Structure formats: structure tokens, C-alpha cells
């Protein structure tokens, strides 16, 4: 099958390379000429485990181009994977989606199956369909399919290849599109969930909102446990054998970040408000998440009284391990907050770079050892593998102080105590 993937971001690049690996001929296009140039030089603009390797082994049937309209014209299947960021009011910015729809309308000379992979609010695929009709495209010339993506950054390829479901939203009786989607993913064993266009959109938002709910819920429980001196690990162990609860997504810590949960919860909140529904739970999830950083700062203040003038090392900049993505990273928000409180912040991340420049009290170091030297306190803000088993003896020699704030519940407090550190955590000691 000949497929044009529009957008060379996390989802576009992962989809394009997996589809090429499944034997399709794929052209991945992006309006960002620099991104396409670097891909054509063999450089992958994002860090995602295995992505560089899968792209290079599919050289023959995976091409990259910034000629978006031309490629849309020459391919019968179009997969839209452009960004859908937040607007200032929390609604979704659909400019990129509609710019692709305009390009499709301009390029359409023969039948196209238009598949939306991007996360879009309920009703958007219906609007895409209506917009194409408005632009004079005949209904028999195209089909619109909603096929949301559920991959996680850091394990994107695995997640796509081992999907727990493939969600397909379509207009009524569109068996042609369903067959096309099935041929597209031939080789991936997963149950198909077939629904309406808006049904598929809602499945995607519900999934992210539910996962975000689990995180905020356990963070709130951890705060309560903290006050009653109960270990949060014991509580999670105690509830997670119940299959109705499951052990997943119950790791309390700094809170959720990244390019999806924050913006998607905001967007779903706005979709609800638009229909006069007050989404109390969605609002509470966000409120708990926003105050997580303050809660951790309060913990530090119980140790230091004042943070002004303290030298603090923050380990981790990315919003989670195994990615260089810093979009809405809680680690970055924490660094900014510490800076406002008058600290000197030394930081280190194996892959991510600080997304801002110019503040003389915030320095990113190329190694962990350099970053922790002379620190009065080390905070683990992202649970990268190399932070899980710290060389305690060396750390003791390099640091000026002995405080470790574990903001991801990822190290063993006993080990820290054994080596003479003061372990600080929420509902962990
Ligand atoms: N990142 C994830 O883990 C993830 C997972 C599931 C779903 N999603 C959803 O998938 C979508 C894409 O997310 P992402 O993180 O891959 O985005 P991204 O920001 O990394 O990449 C989007 C790309 O689209 C390109 N683009 C914008 N307008 C274009 C146009 N008119 N023509 C061609 N290219 C254009 C941009 O230049 C950019 O390279 C979003 O809706 C997101 O919510 C993301
Ligand atoms: O128990 C947990 C699990 C996650 N997180 C945090 O939650 C955020 C998101 O983590 P994760 O879901 O692993 O990463 P994403 O790559 O953002 O993936 C989410 O967002 C994608 C984009 O929509 C979806 O496709 C995925 O299914 C969904 O998991 C990160 O800040 C994590 O640190 C926690 O705090 N505790």
C-alpha cells in the first residue's frame, strides 16, 4: 500500500517507520524543511529508542519530503499526524489539522482514504469531512477515518507493534475504509474497536484522562499517607492485586507532564464546558497535578527552612525517562520554581536539554558527577535508569550536603540511609 504520513513528529515518524517495516511504501512529509533535511541526512531529530535503527533498515520504502501537496496527490492513503497543541484557553489548536485538510482539498485528484492519527476533540473528524465537502470535493472521492494513536514516548515502537487495540472511527457502512485500515496494520495482532468518528475521538481522550486520573488520585493518597506516616508503596502493593484496580499508573511523584496528558485533559475539559457540562473530576485532576511541585518544595522547606541561596541539583529534565522531550515537563517546572525561590540549580539529563537559556543560576552539566558536585541537595525529578542505582560513596564525596529528595519514588530509602544520606520523599522515608 502507498501511504503518505503527514507530520514527522513522534507519532508521524513512528507510524511511518512501522508501516514501512510492515512492507508498505511510505512517504513521510513535513512542512519543517530543516527536519526533513536532517532526516534525509540520516539524522533522527528526536530521541526514541530503536527509531534510528528502524528508519535506516527501511531506506528503500521510507522516504522523507517537504513537498507535502505533491506527496498527498500521489498517495491514496493519507495519515494525518500533525501536532494539536493547546490554545491559551485550554481548547485544542486545530490550525495544523485544517492546514492539512486544505492541502488535501487542493491535491485531491483521485480517491483518498484520510486517516486522522492526531488527537482531536470530539466532532473534529466530522468537521474535516464537512470541510472537504464545502471545498467542493465530491463525497465519493474520499473517506475520513479516525484512528487515534496510543503509543507512549520512550516505548513508541514497541507500543505500536504490540498495540492492545486498534481504534477505528468511521462513517456508517464504510467497510471499504475498515478493510484499508486492516491491510495497513496487517502484521499487528490487536483487537479492532470499530465505532463512529466521534466515538474514536472520545476513546482517545477518555483513555488519557483516565490514566491522568489514576496519577492525580495516587498523588493525593500519597499526601494523605505522608501525614499519617504510612508508606505509599505498601498502599499501592495492597490495592494493586485487585484486577479491577491493577498495579499500573500508580506511581506517585512530581505529577504528570509531557505533550499529551496535560493538553488532552485541558481539551476534554473544554469540550465538556462547551456542552454545559462541569467536568469536576477533570478539573480536580489538573489542580492536584499543578500543586504537586509545591508539595515537594514544602517537603524541602521542612529540611532547609529557607531555600534562598541553596545549591540544588535536579537530576532529570525530560518529562519521563527514555525521551528527550521536555514539553510540559514537571522537572522543568520544578527547576523554574527553585530558581524563583533563589536557588542555584545544577542539572543533568542523559538525553534532554533545558528548553530555555539565559538564567545564570541554572546550569546544565554534561555528566551526573559534575552536576552533583558541591550540591547541598539532590532531587531526582525524572527516573532515568542511571539515577536508580547511584554510586552512593562517590555521591557523598562529591556533594557538600547529604539531602536526597526522591520526587519519583524510584530509589531505595534504606540504601540512602545506609550511606549517611537524609532521604526525603512523600509517604516514603
Ligand atoms: N507524542 C506522543 O507520544 C503522542 C502519542 C499519541 C498521540 N499523539 C498525538 O499525535 C499528534 C502528533 O503528536 P507529536 O508529538 O508527534 O507532534 P510533534 O509536534 O512532535 O510533530 C508534529 C509535526 O507536524 C508537522 N506539521 C505541522 N503542520 C504540518 C502540515 N501542514 N504539513 C506537514 N507537517 C506539518 C510539524 O512540523 C511537526 O514536525 C498530536 O495530536 C498528539 O496529541 C502524540
Ligand atoms: O504511574 C505513573 C505513570 C506516569 N506518570 C507520569 O505521567 C506522564 C505521562 O507518562 P506516559 O503515559 O508514560 O507517557 P506519554 O508518552 O505521555 O504517553 C501518554 O500519552 C500518549 C499521548 O496521547 C498516549 O498515547 C499514551 O497512551 C499515554 O500513556 C509522565 O510525566 C510520567 O512521569 C506518573 O507520574 N506516574
From TrEMBL:
SMART domains: UDPG_MGDP_dh_C. The keyword NAD applies. Pathway: Nucleotide-sugar biosynthesis; UDP-alpha-D-glucuronate biosynthesis; UDP-alpha-D-glucuronate from UDP-alpha-D-glucose: step 1/1. It comes from the Bacteria. It catalyses: UDP-alpha-D-glucose + 2 NAD(+) + H2O = UDP-alpha-D-glucuronate + 2 NADH + 3 H(+). This is UDP-glucose 6-dehydrogenase. Belongs to the UDP-glucose/GDP-mannose dehydrogenase family. Its EC number is 1.1.1.22. Keywords: NAD, Oxidoreductase. PANTHER family: UDP-GLUCOSE 6-DEHYDROGENASE TUAD. Coiled coil: none annotated. The lineage of its organism: Bacteria, Bacillati, Bacillota, Bacilli, Bacillales. It comes from Metabacillus halosaccharovorans.
Amino acid at each position: 500500500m502507498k501511504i503518505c504520513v503527514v507530520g514527522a513528529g513522534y507519532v508521524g515518524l513512528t507510524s511511518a517507520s512501522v508501516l514501512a517495516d510492515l512492507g508498505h511504501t511510505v512517504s513521510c512529509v513535513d512542512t519543517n524543511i530543516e527536519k526533513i533535511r536532517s532526516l534525509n541526512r540520516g539524522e533522527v531529530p528526536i530521541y526514541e529508542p530503536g527509531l534510528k535503527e528502524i528508519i535506516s533498515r527501511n531506506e528503500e520504502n521510507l522516504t522523507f519530503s517537504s513537498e507535502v501537496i505533491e506527496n498527498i496527490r500521489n498517495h491514496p492513503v493519507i495519515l494525518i499526524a500533525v501536532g494539536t497543541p493547546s490554545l491559551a484557553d485550554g481548547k485544542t489548536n486545530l490550525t495544523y489539522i485544517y492546514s492539512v485538510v486544505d492541502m488535501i482539498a487542493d491535491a485531491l485528484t483521485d480517491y483518498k482514504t484520510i486517516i486522522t492519527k492526531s488527537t482531536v476533540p470530539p466532532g473534529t473528524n466530522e468537521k474535516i469531512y464537512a470541510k472537504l465537502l464545502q471545498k467542493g470535493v465530491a463525497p465519493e472521492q474520499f473517506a475520513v477515518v479516525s484512528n487515534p494513536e496510543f503509543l507512549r514516548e520512550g516505548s513508541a515502537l514497541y507500543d505500536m507493534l504490540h498495540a492492545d487495540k486498534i481504534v477505528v472511527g468511521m462513517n456508517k457502512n464504510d467497510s471499504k475504509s475498515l478493510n484499508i485500515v486492516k491491510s495497513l496494520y496487517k502484521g499487528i495482532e490487536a483487537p479492532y474497536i470499530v465505532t463512529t468518528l466521534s466515538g474514536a475521538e472520545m476513546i482517545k481522550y477518555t483513555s488519557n484522562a483516565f490514566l491522568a486520573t489514576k496519577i492525580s488520585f495516587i498523588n493525593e493518597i500519597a499526601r494523605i499517607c505522608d501525614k499519617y506516616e504510612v508508606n505509599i508503596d505498601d498502599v499501592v502493593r495492597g490495592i494493586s492485586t485487585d484486577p479491577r484496580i491493577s498495579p499500573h499508573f500508580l506511581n506517585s511523584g512530581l505529577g504528570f507532564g509531557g505533550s499529551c496528558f496535560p493538553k488532552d485533559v485541558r481539551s476534554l475539559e473544554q469540550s465538556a464546558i462547551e456542552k454545559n457540562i462541569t467536568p469536576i473530576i477533570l478539573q480536580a485532576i489538573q489542580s492536584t497535578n499543578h500543586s504537586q511541585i509545591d508539595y515537594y518544595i514544602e517537603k524541602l522547606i521542612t529540611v532547609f527552612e529557607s531555600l534562598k541561596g541553596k545549591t540544588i541539583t535536579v537530576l532529570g529534565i525530560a518529562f519521563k525517562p527514555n525521551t528527550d522531550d521536555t514539553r510540559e515537563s514537571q522537572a522543568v517546572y520544578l527547576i523554574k520554581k527553585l530558581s524563583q525561590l533563589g536557588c542555584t540549580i545544577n542539572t543533568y539529563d542523559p538525553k534532554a536539554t533545558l528548553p530555555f537559556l539565559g538564567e545564570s543560576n541554572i546550569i546544565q552539566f554534561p555528566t551526573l558527577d559534575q552536576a552533583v558536585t558541591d550540591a547541598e541537595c539532590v532531587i531526582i525529578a525524572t527516573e532515568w535508569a542511571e539515577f536508580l542505582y547511584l554510586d552512593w560513596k562517590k555521591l557523598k564525596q562529591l556533594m557538600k550536603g547529604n539531602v536526597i529528595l526522591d520526587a519519583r519514588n524510584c530509589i531505595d530509602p534504606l540504601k540512602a540511609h545506609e550511606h549517611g544520606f537524609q532521604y526525603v520523599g512523600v509517604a516514603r522515608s
